[in-house]
Design goal:
Blueprint lengths: L18 H10 L2 E3 L4 E3 L2 H9 L3 E2 L2 H4 L15 H7 L10 H12 L2 H29 L1 E3 H6 L1 H11 L6 H11 L4 H4 L5 H26 L8 H9 L9 H14 L2 H16 L1 H9 L4 H11 L5 E6 L3 E3 L2 E3 L4 E5 H4 L34 H18 L4 E3 L4 E2 L8 E3 L1 E4 L12
Parallel strand pairs: 2-8
Antiparallel strand pairs: 1-2, 3-5, 4-12, 5-8, 6-7, 9-12, 10-11
Length: 426
């Protein structure tokens, strides 16, 4: 236990609003030692930890020469273990640098900007389906009808996934995400579900690689798979293995799915809970780029990330020792009044840059530009069709996950009654 506070943990009831819990720790014990890890709550400490090379992603490196660390994935789940072992989010240089550089060559800002018209078409179609269902049935789940389908459609376009396979891909992406630490603690079969999804996705991408090698379709024009294969063939570095390529494609699929789903759902929920800001955005649509940044800061789709200490490192008055696990609470950092004035207030005119919602340093989210494009376009399309009388059913049901944080459903109703939303301190 640290200070006067119990070891940090969130109950299910805290998931809908973790920020009051964060506030207590940020004020009383901002560098907090719980039973199995340090937790950093201040923006200054979190932002420094994200860029500090003394902290890395490998438990094995942190424990080198000492007691072996527990495996990231316990038990016999070979497909999940192999897939995750090639995700750049879990890698340190030089492997991280090599894979990230390859993705960056194919996944350029030009590629993202070129996707915006297509994102607009996809979002407009889903928005029209959403409003039709809302008027027909009187209520509709935004997550099911809009926030979850859009990101999987966009990332499928990027990866060249045929339209008829997108429902299948969405189900496998959801299955793979059952391997997050919170969900495995609450579902006995979570690793088995994730392992099956990893196997099926791995088989799909390996078949794509084999087919493209056989036909020569690696000119970088068709999709991100072709672009990465073309970049990998330039001879500047040894080519990536099929394990590395397939694992990277699975990573891009999953990383671009649930986080953006949560961003869209929580973004609209925040606007509905703050009708003055919603009215402002309707009146001044040019605010949308800055509004998207503020919505990410205000209620981040990823709330925590973890690191391992490769050497002793000081944070405030405390010292994190080599081998220690460190949890960076991004959601708390983004509500730190030392960095953002009145941080619990949603203010779409605020300069929200340097929030930690996309991370910082070498692991800064490679898909940040795509997430911004999706958020700006999707929210604009939702505001185009959303009745001003829209209300939110309560309670909002959140997934049992603090890392990928967001509603598992968000039921909206069309009506003239006052919005039935909670007055949580958010």
């Amino acid at each position: 236990m640290s200070g006067a506070l119990a070891p940090f943990r969130l109950t299910r009831s805290d998931l809908s609003d973790p920020y009051s819990v964060y506030r207590r720790y940020r004020q009383a014990d901002p560098v907090h030692l719980a039973s199995d890890a340090w937790h950093l709550f201040r923006h200054e400490d979190v932002s420094r930890a994200l860029t500090d090379r003394r902290l890395g992603r490998s438990a094995a490196t942190a424990h080198e020469g000492g007691s072996p660390p527990p495996p990231r994935i316990p038990g016999d789940f070979p497909h999940l273990t192999r897939t995750v072992a090639n995700w750049m989010v879990f890698l340190d240089p030089p492997r991280h640098t090599r894979i990230r550089a390859l993705v960056a060559k194919a996944f350029t800002p030009k590629v993202v900007e070129g996707l915006r018209p297509r994102i607009r078409v996809l979002a407009a179609d889903l928005a029209d389906e959403f409003t039709a269902a809302l008027h027909r049935d009187g209520s509709v789940d935004l997550v099911d009808v809009f926030a979850a389908p859009l990101p999987i459609q966009v990332i499928s376009e990027l990866l060249g996934v045929p339209r008829e396979l997108r429902t299948w891909f969405r189900a496998r992406a959801v299955g793979l995400q059952q391997a997050t630490s919170t969900r495995t603690a609450r579902a006995a079969d979570a690793y088995a579900v994730a392992d099956r999804a990893a196997r099926e996705l791995d088989e799909y991408f390996r078949s794509e690689l084999a087919a493209r090698h056989g036909t020569g379709r690696v000119d970088g024009e068709r999709d991100l798979i072709a672009g990465m294969m073309a970049a990998d063939d330039n001879g500047e570095q040894p080519p990536l293995s099929d394990d590395e390529l397939a694992g990277t494609f699975v990573h891009l699929l999953t990383a671009g799915h649930e986080t953006t789903t949560n961003l869209l759902a929580k973004g609209l929920l925040a606007l509905l809970r703050h009708p003055d800001q919603l009215a402002l955005l309707r009146a001044r649509p040019e605010l949308m780029p800055g509004a998207a940044e503020e919505l990410i800061r205000y209620d981040s789709p990823v709330q925590t990330v973890s690191r391992w200490a490769y050497a002793d490192a000081g944070f405030g008055p405390r010292t994190v020792r080599r081998g220690d696990r460190v949890v960076l609470v991004l959601g708390s950092a983004n509500r730190d009044p030392e960095r953002f004035a009145a941080p619990d207030r949603l203010d779409l005119t605020r300069d929200a840059r340097r929030h930690c919602g996309f991370g910082l340093g070498i692991h800064y989210c490679l898909g940040a530009a795509l997430a911004r494009a999706e958020a700006e376009t999707a929210l604009a399309e939702l505001l185009r069709v959303l009745p001003e009388s829209t209300t939110v059913d309560q309670p909002v049901c959140y997934a049992d996950d603090l890392v990928f944080h967001g509603p598992s459903s968000l039921v909206l109703r069309a009506g003239n009654q006052a919005a039935r939303i909670s007055h949580l301190s958010r």
